[in-house]
Amino acid sequence: MNETLQLFNLCGKRALITGSGRGIGLALARGLAGAGAAVVINDRNEQKASAVAARLRDEGFSADIAVFDVTNPAQVTDAVDAYEERAGAIDILVNNAGIQRRAALENFTATDWNDLLRVNLDGAFHVSQAVARHMLARGRGKIINICSVQGELARPGIAPYAATKGAIRMLTKGMCAEWAGRGIQANALAPGYFATDLNRALVDDPAFSDWLCKRTPAGRWGRVEELCGAAVFLASPASDFVNGQTLFVDGGLTSVV
Ligand code: NAP
């Protein structure tokens, strides 16, 4: 392998991807595994995580599981510590687990607001803290926080979701402030619109799809595999001097009005 390709090689690295039983998390797990990483599938359900990991192994990849709910700090710390003890270092963390709730801001329930914050923001904090303690002890690590175009642009009906993604951008900068000098590169990856369960309401709405395709310079929805190149870059030595950035993979949506 030539020197440039070597920069993107993840062989010998282990990547934990939260919420990787389906959707973008699963696509990123497959993408990182394709670049050589051993991947750790996280889900709250052990059977589901095991089935996904088995499917990836059938595809020729190295895949293991770590079962925890990102909103439960004790469960997260126990699972991460036990995993490191049993299997070895987690070199790459992708904070992907996330949820969406839709309602007019004036009618948004406190329960939905709290759920969004707990999964999208608290979850990334808990898992990063648990994993970073090990990374800091080793003096190296890569953290990729899955943000969104909504970290930059608001939309009616999802103001609280946008607030969590804006916060994730700042948490990423905070990680940079505290950990860049200690060997961890923390960056955010901000997808545009990708057809997954999270966006089911939009995918099923032809008027929204039509609007989106006109609004997006690339003229279409993203395909989840199209996030993998950016994830491999941010997980690999190719990004060793990239810290605290948000990389938008959005077909140009945030660049053009
Ligand atoms: P998705 O298909 O709904 O998948 C979300 C994943 O997160 C599922 O695997 C889910 O597990 C997991 N999860 C939810 N709560 C969890 C918890 N408490 N602990 C552990 N895992 C949990 O959504 P997606 O579209 O792939 O979204 C993934 C990430 O990308 C999210 O952070 C989202 O905000 C972001 N994003 C998505 C888009 C898009 O267009 N789809 C755009 C921008 C950003 P279960 O199967 O158990 O529910």
Textual characterization of the structure:
With 257 residues, this protein is an alpha/beta fold. The protein has a single domain (3-251), classed as NAD(P)-binding Rossmann-like Domain (Rossmann fold). The chain is 45% helix and 14% strand. The chain has 9 helices and 7 strands. Helix 3 (46-58) links the parallel strand 2 and strand 3 (63-67). The radius of gyration is 18 Å and the shape is globular. It starts with a helix and ends in an 8-residue tail after the last strand. NADP nicotinamide-adenine-dinucleotide phosphate is lined by residues 18-19, 21-25, 43-44, 69-71, 96-99, 119, 123, 146, 148, 191, 193-194, 196-199. Keywords: Oxidoreductase. GO terms for molecular function: oxidoreductase activity, acting on the CH-OH group of donors, NAD or NADP as acceptor.
